[in-house]
Amino acid sequence: MRRKDREMNRDFGLQVIDQAQYGVLSLPEGDGLAYGIPLSIAREGGTLYFHSAKSGKKTELIKDGAPVHITFVGECQVPCVMTESEAAEAARTPEQFGLLTSKLFTTEFSSAMVKGVIRCLSEDAEKTHALRVISQRFTPQWMGYFPQAIESGLKLTAVYAVDIKEITAKRKKFDAQGQEMKNQRMG
C-alpha cells in the first residue's frame, strides 16, 4: 500500500466488509482481463458467502479452489472541511493552492480488499448455513419464512464461500477541525 499513513488494521477491514452494501469479486476472464462482479456478500468469522444462479458468466468463471480478490467500499463522501471564506483566502495565494486540492477536491472513504480462496459449496447443510448467514444480514425481517424459501430455492441456487487469507484496509477521514486522521487515529 503506497499511503501507509491511511492504512487501517484487520478489524477495521472487517467492519468495512460488514457495513458495505456490496463487494466486487474480481475473476480472470481468460483473455487477460479481469471480470468484476458486484455481489451481496455476508461474512461469518473469516469466511465470506454469496450466492447466484447455477448458470451464467459468473458461474462459468468461478473455479473451485482458485484465488480471488474482493473489494469493499464503505463510506464515501465529500467532506466539508473548509468554509467559503477559507477557500477564497487559499485561492488568492499560490502557496496555499494545495489546500484547495487536499481539502475541497477530495473524498473521505473507507475500503477493504480481501485476498482469498473460493469454494463452491455442494452439501445442502453447508449451502443452507451460508444462505442463512446471507439472509440474516440482508433480510433479517423475513427469517420466519426462511425454511420455505430454502425448500423451494436450494436446488436452484449456487452458493460460494471465500476463505479470507489477507485483508488490507484503508481510510481517509477528517476530524471536526478539518485535519486528516492518519495512522489509524480514530475519532
Give a quick set of tags describing it.
187 residues; alpha+beta; Pnp Oxidase, Chain A; 8-stranded antiparallel beta sheet; 8 strands
Describe the structure.
- The chain has helices at 10-19, 57-61, 84-92, 97-103, 124-138, 146-153, and strands at 7-8, 23-28, 34-39, 42-44, 47-53, 67-77, 108-121, 157-172.
- The model has no long low-confidence stretch (mean pLDDT 89).
- The chain contains six helices and eight strands.
- The chain has a single domain (4-76, 108-172), classed as Pnp Oxidase, Chain A, CATH 2.30.110.
- Helix 3 runs antiparallel to helix 4 (97-103).
- A hairpin with a 2-residue loop joins strand 4 (42-44) and strand 5.
- Strands 1, 2, 3, 4, 5, 6, 7 and 8 form an eight-stranded antiparallel beta sheet that branches.
- The protein is elongated and about 65 Å long.
- By secondary structure, it is of the alpha+beta class.
Could you tell me the CATH topology label.
Answer: Pnp Oxidase, Chain A
Beta-strand residue percentage: 25-35%
| Count of helix runs | 6
Flag low-confidence runs. Answer: none
Tell me, briefly, the overall form.
elongated
For the record, the CATH class is Mainly Beta
- Range of helix content: 25-40%
Summary?
The chain is an alpha+beta fold and 187 residues long. The protein has 6 helices and 8 strands; from the N terminus they run E-H-E-E-E-E-H-E-H-H-E-H-H-E.
